[in-house]
C-alpha cells in the first residue's frame, strides 16, 4: 500500500523482500531515503538492516525510516539504537509517511 501511494505521489520506488536484497539495492541505486518495516521475510529484520546500512560508508548517509506496528517490547527503542532516523507507528496514514519523507528530502 505504501509503495503504491509513494508512486502515486511522484516518487520512484524500488522494493526488496529481504534485508540482503535491500542492502544490495541501496549500494547500487543510492536512494535518497529508505523505508522499512521491522518484521521482514527471512534473514535480518529492519533493525539489523538499518545497522548494516549505517555501518557502510556508501549507505551511511541515507536516511532510514521504519514503519511498524511493533510498538511494544522495546522494538522502537531498538530501531533508534540501530540508527533509524525515524520510526512511524501503524496505523500510519500514507500521507503521514510522505510528510516524514519530505522532511528528510528537504534537508
Task: Produce the secondary structure layout.
Layout: H1 2-8, H2 19-29, E1 34-36, H3 46-55, E2 64-68, H4 75-81, E3 86-89, H5 94-105
Parallel strand pairs: 1-2, 2-3
Give descriptors for this structure.
Rossmann fold, 107 residues, three-stranded parallel β-sheet, single chain, alpha/beta, 5 helices, globular
Short recap of the structure:
With 107 residues, this protein is of the alpha/beta class. The chain contains 5 helices and 3 strands; from the N terminus they run ααβαβαβα. It has one domain: Rossmann fold (3-Layer(aba) Sandwich), CATH 3.40.50.
Would you give an account of this structure?
With 107 residues, the chain is of the alpha/beta class. It has helices at 2-8, 19-29, 46-55, 75-81, 94-105, and strands at 34-36, 64-68, 86-89. The chain has a single domain, classed as Rossmann fold. The chain is built from five helices and three strands. A three-stranded parallel sheet has the order 1-2-3, with helices on both faces. Strand 2, helix 4 and strand 3 form a beta-alpha-beta unit. Helix 2 packs parallel to helix 3.
Spell out the helices and strands N to C: HHEHEHEH
Helix/strand class? alpha/beta
Residue ranges: pLDDT <50 for 5 or more in a row? none
CATH level 1 name: Alpha Beta
Main sheet makeup? 3 strands, parallel
Amino acid at each position: 500500500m505504501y509503495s503504491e501511494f509513494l508512486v502515486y505521489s511522484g516518487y520512484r520506488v524500488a522494493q526488496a523482500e529481504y534485508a540482503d536484497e535491500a542492502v544490495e539495492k541501496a549500494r547500487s541505486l543510492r536512494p535518497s531515503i529508505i523505508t522499512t518495516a521491522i518484521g521482514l521475510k527471512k534473514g535480518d529484520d529492519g533493525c539489523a538492516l538499518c545497522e548494516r546500512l549505517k555501518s557502510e560508508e556508501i549507505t551511511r548517509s541515507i536516511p532510514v525510516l521504519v514503519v511498524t506496528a511493533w510498538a511494544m517490547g522495546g522494538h522502537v527503542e531498538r530501531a533508534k539504537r540501530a540508527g533509524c532516523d525515524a520510526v512511524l507507528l501503524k496505523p500510519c496514514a500514507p500521507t503521514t509517511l510522505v510528510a516524514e519523507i519530505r522532511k528528510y528530502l528537504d534537508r
